[in-house]
Amino acid sequence: MELAGSTVPLERDLQMFVERNMTTLLGVRFLDTEVRTGPLHGGRIDSLGLDEDGSPVIVEYKRGRDENVINQALFYLAWLRDHQDAFEALVARRLGPDAVAEVDWSSPRIICVAADYSRYDVHAIGEMNRRIDLVRYRQFGDDLLTLELVASVAGGTARRGSGGLVVARPTAEQRLAGASEAVRALYDDIDGRLLDFGDVHSVQLKQYVAYRRGPNFASVKVQARSLLVYLRLDPAAVELVEGFTRDVRGIGHHGTGDLEVRITSPTGLDRAEPLLQSAYEAAA
After folding, report:
1. pLDDT tens for residues 250-274?
2. How far is it, in rounded angstroms, from Cα 276 to Cα 75?
3. What would the DSSP string read from start to end of 113-162?
4. pLDDT in tens, 55-66
5. Which phi-psi region, left, alpha or beta, contains residue 199 (left: φ > 0; alpha: ψ -120 to 50)?
6. Of 159, 188, 174, whose CA–CA distance to 266 is shortest?
């Protein structure tokens, strides 16, 4: 029998539940709640966080279906961009001074959590040139709440992946500056394979391109003669091969994931395909 979902009794209940479980549910480290934006903006940001890529995150909640949640979040994003020092001071207080170096202002992010969205909402975020996720929640009984990614854009020129989500397509100059023609072909190949898994979207950050299905499951860093791919897999569960796969737990690196895969040829990419698939499936 199919369970009928419902909305939460109070918006604050939804907010408190997500804030308590933000890392697990959204891949975002919680920083603060009900953040006042001062007399000029005259409002309060529901939640502030820092995601796994170092991007500042605004999370706004609506108990029901409310198209104003997107405009409200965009309004607060303008405040956030104007108060970078205040945000970084908050990061230092909550996560420690070393975490400030992780903050990447190239792509601040908005996450809207609401009971539902209209087709106009989904279309609108594709026109806004901002990094926005629309997440739908449903409550089942007293102790079960689910979140579903309805649509996501990463700013810049948007296109649709095979899963129907709107995703960003960074320019070749941005992605592959200084890379060889062979590496450019490799990147185009792996980019297509990852998006073709379905329900995947990508975002270009300073150091790498992240591929997400909820949290990141793969991060691709372009080098002059190879691709470094970081996968959210347990290296202990993988047979490591020198020059191909490496355990990077405890080793500083750009990109999220503990398993590093070095790809230098189309044959290497074919060899990596089962690992890419495993990371994708583990992110479900």
Report:
1. 776 677 889 999 999 999 999 999 9
2. 38
3. EES---HHHHHHHHTS-SEEEEEEEEEETTTEEEEEEEEEEESSSEEE-T
4. 899 999 988 776
5. left
6. 188
